[in-house]
Specification:
eight-stranded antiparallel β-sheet; two-stranded antiparallel sheet; alpha+beta; globular; single chain; 258 residues; 7 helices
């Protein structure tokens, strides 16, 4: 489908009362030295407001998209949802240009009525016996271990998802309330900061790979995007908020646009 396109602002999304605002603000600040450029997003998906809930307990839902690019990064984007006690979400993904031997950066920070679902990773585009990002893990593992030891596990990763996560996949579930808030402040925010800082160091160090290698990396990226588009766990929530037609277009045209 073809949608009217507007270039996104480089200013970060600002959502009043949004739990994950400090995370996005930090990411945008750390990205500035890369010389960010705007990234085109269909106008229909830059912002969206809907009403959810029953007639007596209605809730305003705000969904915003922020996106940019840099010389070594094809797409940097944040999908942001604020719906009061119903949901608060930051899905932040960095997709590198396939001409560089870089993993994805991925952060899913989700608050639902049942608790917080939180995940951080530097995800390989090619997970084979000779992973293209193998040198990353020796640098990321100490960061992962420092924070994982203090966090409850989020549960097993499905077998079909294993090819798309690294050995340093930080994945946890936390309760709502004071305990969860304290753990987010003390553990999740500094972990996010360290994962992102390491990723940006990798970007700075990255050099161009051969054309054949670039083709392999692009294929790996497409496989990852296809998997994420098919299995996106936010599909049900977004469909409930904004309808299935808007949601399917958003998933395929913006979130996973390869």
């Amino acid at each position: 489908m073809n949608f009217p396109v507007r270039t996104t602002s480089l200013d970060p999304v600002q959502l009043e009362g949004w739990r994950w605002q400090p995370f996005l603000d930090e990411a945008v600040d750390k990205l500035q030295p890369l010389g960010l450029e705007t990234y085109p997003v269909p106008l229909l998906f830059l912002s969206k407001e809907s009403i959810t809930g029953s007639a007596t307990r209605q809730q305003l839902v705000k969904t915003f998209t922020w996106a940019c690019r840099a010389s070594k990064l094809r797409q940097i984007r944040a999908a942001c949802i604020e719906a009061g006690k119903t949901a608060s979400v930051l899905n932040f993904v960095i997709c590198p240009e396939p001409s560089y031997n870089l993993p994805f950066f991925g952060a899913d920070l989700v608050t639902l009525p049942g608790g917080h679902l939180l995940a951080l990773d530097l995800q390989p585009a090619l997970k084979t016996k000779a992973w293209h990002t193998s040198p990353v893990w020796s640098r990321l593992m100490p960061i992962f271990e420092r924070w994982q030891v203090e966090l409850p596990t989020g549960g097993p990763v499905p077998d079909e998802a294993q090819p798309f996560f690294s050995p340093c996949f930080l994945w946890t579930r936390l309760p709502l309330g004071k305990q969860g808030d304290e753990l987010i402040s003390r553990l999740i925010q500094p972990a996010f900061s360290e994962y992102l800082s390491l990723y940006l160091s990798l970007v700075e160090e990255a050099t161009v790979v051969s054309p054949d290698r670039s083709k392999q990396l692009l294929l790996g990226q497409k496989l990852y995007y296809s998997y994420r588009a098919e299995k996106d766990p936010a599909r049900g929530m977004l469909s409930r908020f904004h309808g299935s037609e808007w949601t399917e277009s958003y998933i395929h045209e913006v979130l996973f646009d390869l």
